[in-house]
Write a structure and sequence with these properties.
The protein is α/β, with parallel strands linked by helices. It has four domains: 175 residues, Spore Coat Polysaccharide Biosynthesis Protein SpsA, Chain A (Alpha-Beta Complex), CATH 3.90.550.10; 136 residues, Serine Threonine Protein Phosphatase 5, Tetratricopeptide repeat, CATH 1.25.40.10; 228 residues, Serine Threonine Protein Phosphatase 5, Tetratricopeptide repeat (Alpha Horseshoe); 83 residues, Serine Threonine Protein Phosphatase 5, Tetratricopeptide repeat. It has an eight-stranded mixed β-sheet with strand order 3-2-1-4-7-6-8-5, sandwiched between helices. Strand 2, helix 2 and strand 3 form a beta-alpha-beta unit. The N and C termini lie far apart (69 Å). Keywords: TPR repeat, Transferase.
Length: 662
Amino acid sequence: MAETISLCMIVKNEGQSLRRCLNSLSGLADEVIVVDTGSTDSTCEIARQYGAILHHFLWNDNFSDARNASLELAQGDWILFLDADEELSSDSRETLIRLVQDETVEGYFVKIKNYLGKEGWIETVSDLVFRLFRNKKEYRFRGAIHEQIADVILENNSKARYQIAEDLTIIHHGYLDEVIKDKDKKQRNLMLIEKELMLNPTNRLLQYHYGVELFRAERYAEAANVLIQSATDIDPTTIFLPKLIRYIVMAQQSSDQLQGALNTAALGLKLFPNYADLYFYTGLILLDLKLYAQARNALSQALSMPEQPPQYSSFGGVRGFRAYYYLAQIAESFLDEEEALKYYLCSLRDNPNFTHALEHLVSILKPTKEPLYTMECLEKVCDFCTPAANRLMGDIYFRHGAYGLALHYLDQVEAGFPISPDIKLRKAICLIQERRFFEALRLLEDFSLDSPEYPIATVNRLFCFWIQHRPQKVRPLWQELHALGLEPDTEHVISLFPAFSEKTASSPHFILGPDGMSLLLDIVQRLVALKEINRAMYFLHALHPKCLTEYYSKIAQIFVDYGEETRAIPFIQSAIERVPSAKAHFQLAEIFSHLGRLSEAEQHYKQALQLDPDTPRYYVRLIELYTTRRQAIVNEALQKYPGNDIFKKLSEEVSSSDEPAD
């Protein structure tokens, strides 16, 4: 006779999720028990539509009591319990039917795939949970939160046998950022666990869950202490021990206990030598400590690990795209762009949605200076055949100020999607930057007064006319924007357009906040990209000098990105005068080197190295500079003393040192 299954659930305000869950068990569960703890939305009506047995439960801050209320109503041979934000994977249906026919098993640990993150960047983390067991009256949940039943079954039946349910997977959506925010799960869970720990202060599982919740609440030092307490003298066969060790490492790392984190990871690897996450986090910590060779070895070890067992709850990408990404970061630290490109490409091949790698790839290829080369390189290795992929590339190039490339890809988006307001706005900006003013204005004039994008569209219309030297169009648009009631900083920046057009004697020295500076620097970047250098300087000169101090390096980089290195020099020199930093000296040295002013470049590379002797790129550049200068001196000597054996030998030595090592 076929075994029957009761699906048991507790719910509250799950109207958006419940249908998905119940659909996944349609035709499998012989009955559905829904215990509602106070819903005020459509949850109860949806449950009735699916024929569920609905029971109302007065919430008492105890998940076990609510779970047990559902068990009291269940009539099936087996209990499967799910939350409303979970579902049974579509390929698990036949597996579930097969598993409940095994007469030798009392319960199953099931693989759960947790979805984490937010729209645009979602990843998965797997774990093992005890969710399927025989329905017996003595089997009841225990614990106010993170309720348990596996131990209770063993206490009542010492011969009970558990198995891992191979090929059975639950999908959990409840860790997505918007779900956690909506339900305030972090604060609720902390409160309930703290109450439970007062009753059971030595319960290791509760301590573990409490430490995890503290970690999620970003109380890292507290989390590390609680988790270490949970791990002290623990049975090495405890199923959650691998996760516990990893969370200790993460909490110690996040609270700057770096050596402690390394020690914990090393201890964990003695117990679980194939645990990829521990190698991965060891690599990150060593990278924080600037121990590059050791970090590289640890990350390479993570890549070499086998498939991780579910109880490790391994984070996605530690054996792939994440490890490749940090190997690329190490390569960039040594200015080895070829190696960095290789690893970023490996990262993207493992996970095409990992945009951090793509952003760095684009940055290395310098799209503002070499747009065609950048596009050719990426088109050889990346697939841009979908509107979504073209949208992604358009957005990335737009952020990098490569407006021509951004326009090329945003144009492709229309083939698959109706043009959205944000794409239309970006396209218009790119058209302005390409000096295709008429086309840009056609797009910008499509925005109606009640559109949220109307103010920024109008600013761009004003900018478009201003670039074309049409002051008769600039002032009316400025007046229209003024009438909209702009923020003071925005008002200050926008007022500079008519002041310039009407040749006002001198522009005021504004003091702007972060939002105002962001708008002004965006205008400056676009002007530099258009080679409107005098106009860009006009906007910068309108600022009070103290307003510029925090932005010297950023302003300099704008000029560098568009091939205006000489203009960048005074800004970096001002930054160094204000607060000498290795990064500023290196930025200036790179400009001098590019301009062929090698003595000045050498001076600033040395200053960077003196201020930060642990950064390898400063050594790399000095070595390259000295090699270049040595070659120039040898060549000069050979011209003066042709055929001289000593100078010939020195020239051969320099040439051989330039060849790549095997």
